[in-house]
Amino acid sequence: MLLIWTLKDKLLTYLIALTDPRTPVAGKVFAILSMVYLLSPVDIFLDTIPFAGFLDDLVLVPLGIRLSSKMIPPEVLQDAQKKAATYKGKLNLIAGIIVTLVLVWILVILGLVYLLLKTVFG
Question: pTM of the predicted model, to two decimals?
């Protein structure tokens, strides 16, 4: 669980750093392309191929994020870490609300699937 919170803090730091005007355009482009590739339905390997479908996501996305993070100047990263620390409490509240809403939706969907299966199969 500790790893998840650490990643969340780093993600917020990099997000703030990427919105900083002092960050080079190339760093912003690599970060945006990595996120677009992650969310895109188009992959190098099809997701239907076991393990190979996720291999490109596990290699290319972190590589793109790593390249973009290396392009961020150290002073921008330090300023972003300070700003991220001020948002930490608010972000925990927002993350808790989002997790709660997602769990509620999952329960609603599971309930609807159960009712559908019960009516179809008796």
Answer: 0.55
